Amino acid sequence: MAGAANPASLESAPRIMRLVAECTRSRARAGELRLPHGPVATPVFMPVGTQATMKGITAEQLDALGCRICLGNTYHLGLRPGPELIQKAHGLHGFMNWPHNLLTDSGGFQMVSLVSLSEVTEEGVRFRSPYDGDETLLSPEKSVQIQNALGSDIIMQLDDVVSSTVTGPRVEEAMYRSIRWLDRCIAAHRRPDKQNLFAIIQGGLDADLRATCLEEMTKRDVPGFAIGGLSGGESKAQFWRMVALSTSRLPKDKPRYLMGVGYATDLVVCVALGCDMFDCVFPTRTARFGSALVPTGNLQLKKKLFEKDFGPIDPECTCPTCQTHSRAFLHALLHSDNTAALHHLTVHNIAYQLRLMSAVRTSIVEKRFPDFVQDFMATMYGDPTLCPTWATEALASVGITLG
Amino acid sequence: MKLSLTKVVNGCRLGKIKNLGKTGDCTMDIPGCLLYTKTGSAPHLTHHTLHNIHGVPAMAQLTLSSLAEHHEVLAEYKEGVGKFIGMPDSLLYCSLHDPVSPCPAGYVTNKSVSVWGVGGRVEMTASKFMTIQQALQPDWFQCLSDGEASYEEATSLKRARKSVDRSLLFLDNCLRLQEESEVLQKSKIIGVIEGGDVMEERLRSARETAKRPVGGFLLDGFQGNPVTLETRLHLLSSVTAVLPEDKPRLISGVSRPDEVLEYIERGVDLFESFFPYQVTERGCALTFSFDYQPNPEETLLHQNGTQEEAKCMDQIKTIKTTDCNEEITSFEINLKEKKYQEDFNPLVRGCSCYCCKNHTRAYVHHLLVTNELLAGVLLMMHNFEHYFGFFHSIREALKSDRLAQLKELIHRQAS
User: Fold this and answer.
1) Is the residue at A382 inside a domain?
2) Active-site residue list of A
3) Which of A1, A223, B40, B195 could join B202 in a cystine, given CB atoms 3.0 to 4.6 angstroms apart?
């Protein structure tokens, strides 16, 4: 798997990704995306701002943290406030006043997360709205149409998503349908010069299905590829194998976006496996539950043990929260009904994720990524032998041995 | 600490309080307001977003109700609540209660007063109260007092008398304990004027409290429903008339723009700023004008706008918020209303707050409809800035002898 030559992309379409450095041992790459709203250094973690807002933090705060791309969600925004209104507001950028890049998911994931409210046919996904019971059909064409109105810099194809715990013919059906839907999305896309349509590799946890999907989708002229259908309930052992298989068959000169991955360990391992872009609700969601991310894991700040802890969340962190506040104060504030507590943690957790990616990138550029991985695992798990088995195996598969 | 009056116009005091704070080099303008906080933080706001706001007052209000239960932590911290909450450069005033959530009555005794925190009731004798203040080390703090005489609409003379007696006893005890505390030497105790609705008790409270070495006076129990407003205003005039001129007069529970002006005219200097918070919590934005000398075209445009709003508000709407039933006033617009869905104007045209400079009514409407946290953040930034701007305009109006115009403008907009 490691070191196999990747097929060069077939067409002469402009590349949005420029490779800056590659790890000579693993598949890790450092690069730069050239997007309509500015460059983005990779590997990159993209925070999720589902409904045109990064939860309780302002666009200015997000910009100040160094974020240059974040996510919005087509399903949610398509319902409220709707594409027509957003178009009147000069697109999603104008509506939320975000000057940097936006990536919108197609609504496909909601097929899984809202499975009880949805029905999939060849036509598209029929959703019943949880707000007013109305039915909407989200077809590949409709999804692209909405995303065209949103004006995001990267748009995702509508894919037929099945939960990774599903087995049997449904997985195969979904994989082939996703290819057909990719073609429909490409055909429906009105703004290929302004918005980059990414394909999403499906195939569940079946290596053959994934390989077939990879072979077919890489024949299409798209600026980037996402690895989808993972980061659900599957075992990590299966997860990493599918990621590795995917990156081994994806072109080198196009970005690889691993969807739904956000735990620190997963990010580091999947960079080693050759992924460039990541998104996850975890860091922002866990912040709102009072959990702060640190290099050794997380701090549940509501717990009594932090009551008199007068140090910052992380003494090495340069985020505004750590510059101004102590664990003790945040503990007290978290026990009040002042939402400011949640925002302090959201700021910190996003800073943590972005700083992690930045450190990963620097280590790749400085040709010491394997050492970085060792240090990271040692800090997180105390001892390389305590690192989770799947991570050790995944890293070994690309030439990085721990311990 | 030194209060200098620039002028007194129609009962309104315009001036500055100088030499404030630990280093003695801070100044506050009067009439003015204090930054409202919950558990030591402006509601919804981090350091960053608070600093986006123009005109934040030099002094913030902390509430003992939100901090008392943390006093052991603060005692161990040793460096005072200002540093603990991340506001080391702010002047701090600690009140007993949170003006937004009044506490249950019936818990004041001759020996103790109770406050309610998240963890429940905290009962404080004068001794415990002062121990807590030693851990907090605020610049000013409201003395332990009995404010319950004003809970009833018609106070009995007996109850009014008791509130004054108790409060004076608490004051004397606290002053004595302050003398014995090195760490509290730089803090000022604010004496509390009680007495319910009984004139002679109010006057007794004022005169007696003024004899003590307090840093200023808190006029307690003057908040209330409109029915009793006239009575209380009259009472207040008599009280402030017997208070020394050179010490600040704070008032609790009064924050509405129209009421603020009434109370300034009767000699009050400092107010709490919880009104913009209440407006925020009901999804509304302050839009009232305090531009008492606009250009004629602006006036016309704004009047047309105000008339539009007035037409839509035939009756005062009552809505349930998470805290209590609060009425939407005519000083604000309700951004949840469908008509704002496609309104791409800022909350208030010409407002220089972060929200108005960066976002639209349509966006805030969307955030409210989708229950997003950012709604509270943006509205709080706007509402605080608007409110602080109002106080600035009061001072400017007093400076240029235009208070009558401002008052007329505000009353025109009051429902």
Assistant:
1) no
2) 105, 279
3) B195
